[in-house]
Write the structure tokens for this entry.
Amino acid sequence: MSKKKASGPTSNTIALNKKAKHEYHIEERFEAGLVLLGWEVKSLRAGKAQLVDSYVLLKDGEAWLLGAHITPLNTASTHVIADPTRTRKLLLHAKEIAKILGKVNQAGNTCIPLAMYWKGNKVKCEIALAKGKKLFDKRATEKERDWNRQKQRIVREANT
């Protein structure tokens, strides 16, 4: 006999930074743990997080997530003063931090969060080394996306 699993959310993704792929060329990705408070975990379970306009700061051999917004739940944060945009520590290996720091010190490189997701019962943040796109790069990406959409329409109409 097989046991049925409890039905839960199908996706492990909590929040995506959709703007990042439009604004930057992604060069290298890293997975980092997050240091969170109890009310933040409850809010993340409810999907109340945004990564828009957030970035990673490297300081004193540590990585910090700035600008990420986790909206507090009314029921979960009654006894604490909740700061939705507080600075959160990212957990990375020293070698990874050194590698990111070396690349960020080069001109044009930055470190940004791409996604926040569940891995088991832990919250992970996918961060990336990225280079800013120029305006003409953004236009080229947009044209390519439109052309791919148009090709799909043509194929779909030809099959019916």
